[in-house]
Amino acid sequence: MSTLHTVNKSPFTDNCLHSCLLLCTNEDALLLIEDGVYGGTSQSPCAEDIRAKIQLGVSVYALKQDTLARGELQVLEGITLIDDKDFVRLSCEHQCIQSWY
């Protein structure tokens, strides 16, 4: 069963992203939203873990509006910036949605 994982907390202040990455499989997708988009930068404490998950086939996304609102962050290679319409599409494509708060 594929899962869309959404993370809204910064990895600089919370362990949600780290915990999420431990459970993500190659059938899953990860969407970074709100302050969670900080997790998709090269300075993130989870940057290497995200790169490894991308290599294993986990699809990783970040909401474009949220990256722009935080100073147009440069996300890691392999992370796709999406809009709200894409968020809805991803929600429909996966059998389960797990929000990490």
Describe this structure in words.
- This protein is an alpha/beta fold.
- The chain has a single domain (3-100), classed as DsrEFH-like (Hypothetical Protein Ychn, Chain: A, 3-Layer(aba) Sandwich).
- It is 34% helix and 23% strand.
- The chain has four helices and five strands; from the N terminus they run βαβαβαβαβ.
- The protein has helices at residues 16-23, 47-56, 64-69, 84-93, and strands spanning 3-7, 29-32, 59-63, 79-82, 96-100.
- Strands 4-3-2-1-5 form a five-stranded parallel beta sheet.
- Strand 3, helix 3 (64-69) and strand 4 (79-82) form a beta-alpha-beta unit.
- The longest helix has 10 residues, at 47-56.
- It is globular and about 35 Å long.
- The two termini are 22 Å apart.
